[in-house]
Design a protein that fits this description.
192 residues, alpha/beta, six-stranded mixed β-sheet, 5 helices, 6 strands, globular
């Protein structure tokens, strides 16, 4: 079976005056991504697909450049829509994120519902994979919340923050065929 990897962007430059999708990687984030291109899973990647948000694009570009593979951005990989609140201080953000996962059928503070974000990411990944040769390993570069929602689907478990990454710049690997089955798999995030 051919596999995919899902990777979240690492540390960013947080600026409350800049829209969240425009935040770029910090120096620490760039260093972590550069080192990650030498991890064993990276050498087999044949294509990189990322969110169009700057932090994810910058992460994807490092991988694609180092590996010499095709890279493109697709809209379905964006983070859960949090434009209703924009930037939130860390403690307030964590409270809103807790609600996002705890009540997936309800909009937390005007955010996109978790169930809708999960449907978007799962169907988007399935659609993208239909256009990629079966034998090509693919790296998806995105964001923590939607990566967790994809993981919950792959594991056939209810949406839960219990499965969220510990920190940005984490990844997991899954078989392409797992998207088409409802058999739960055991997955876990790995830090870069």
């Amino acid at each position: 079976m051919t596999w995919c990897a899902y990777l979240t962007h690492p540390e960013v430059l947080i600026d409350p005056d800049v829209p969240v999708p425009e935040w770029g990687l910090s120096d620490t984030g760039r260093e972590r991504v550069a080192k990650a291109t030498f991890l064993p899973f990276a050498k087999d990647i044949r294509q990189v697909i990322s969110s169009a948000e700057r932090k994810a694009l910058e992460t994807a570009q490092v991988f694609a450049g180092r590996l010499g593979v095709f890279q493109r951005a697709l809209p379905f990989l964006h983070e859960n829509d949090r434009s209703a609140t924009g930037f939130l201080p860390p403690e307030e953000f964590e409270q809103a994120a807790d609600l996002f996962f705890a009540e997936p059928h309800t909009s937390a503070r005007g955010w996109e519902r978790a169930i809708d974000a999960q449907d978007r990411i799962v169907n988007g990944v399935k659609s993208a994979l239909r256009h990629i040769p079966e034998e090509d390993p693919v790296l998806f570069v995105g964001h923590g919340a939607v990566g967790t929602l994809l993981m919950c689907h792959l594991m056939a478990t209810p949406i839960s923050r219990h499965h969220d990454q510990r920190r940005g710049g984490s990844w997991y690997r899954f078989e392409k065929s797992w998207l088409m089955t409802q058999a739960g798999r055991n997955l876990a995030w790995t830090d870069l």
